[in-house]
Amino acid sequence: MHKKLSGRKKREILEKDSIPKKNGNPSIFLLKMLLSAAPNYLSGSDLAKSLNMSRVGVWSRVNNLRKKGINIDATQNLGYRFAGEPNFIEENLIIAWLEYIKCNQCIVDVREKVTSTNSEIEKLLPERTSKTPIVIISNQQTNGKGRFNKQWKSPRGGNIYMSIGFKPNVDLIKLRYFTLIQGIEIAKVLQKETNSNDLKIKWPNDIFLNGNKIGGMLTEASIDCEKVNSLTFGFGLNVNTSPRLVDSNFGISSLKQESDSNYLLNEITARIIKKTIQTYRKCILTKLDTTLINDWNRHDFLYKKQITLVSGKREFQGMAYGIDDSGGLKLKLKNGRIKVFHAGEVSVKR
Known about the structure:
This protein is of the alpha+beta class. It has helices at residues 7-17, 26-37, 44-51, 55-67, 91-100, 117-124, 178-194, 255-259, 265-285, 291-299; strands at residues 71-75, 79-84, 107-111, 134-138, 144-145, 151-152, 159-166, 170-171, 199-202, 206-209, 212-224, 227-238, 306-311, 314-323, 329-333, 338-341, 345-348. 33% of the residues lie in helices and 28% in strands.
């Protein structure tokens, strides 16, 4: 049963979120307060006081947010509560989620359609001098990018298509593990969302659930004299769709398809943005240790599988044996020798 918050809890939320900053967006503040109170209600009078507007103003703003697909329930004598998300990324809501989970250090731009979020980031980064991350999220891509110029199919609605741009200006060695660590951290986020222990990473950049591919990463960098001037991290994740309806490739799936549940798309996106920024800072500021290999082994989709690896024009076959301390894939060849690869396209023998 949903009810109003206790007086103490309500005061905590209202004191923390009251009175928007100058030129702030009241819709974002309203959503953040509702997220903080969920699943309980906040009264219209309390919201009006905190937002420094009339109760009619709160009602009008709630209606505008409803028109954007956000489900806000209103009940007489109780007030308003956050009741559900649209199955697409909505800019006010994603920013409210980011503020709610205390990730305020990035600029977010939500688009309805782009050719590729990575391409859009790459247009913006050269013009920026600030190191503040830029995030572009789109509800559809017409030419989504994968590794080796493969297309990432990106129909509208239900999925995450986003890129985050950084201006590191650091030695290349500091970011050489970035994609591997990011894969591990994304797997951990999705483990919590799905309550599944079968979140795996296929070296170096694919996310698998229950043996099926649900997502992929693409990291691109501008490098000059062994220094990384700009870094673009692209990420695609099938969340609430049935990808087999639009992609005939065997083994392509989604969170919904694997767990028979719907997910809060904006919340998951916000949590992955926060984790990406944390991973980036971890790479920049700290010296990594053997925990990388241990964490990778727990999520390694390829471990002790028979694979084919194509590197350049050569093809190698053998058994995958995890990664070494440089992040390279270890492949045990038919002659028993272990060979390490730092690039290549991998396929699993079925």
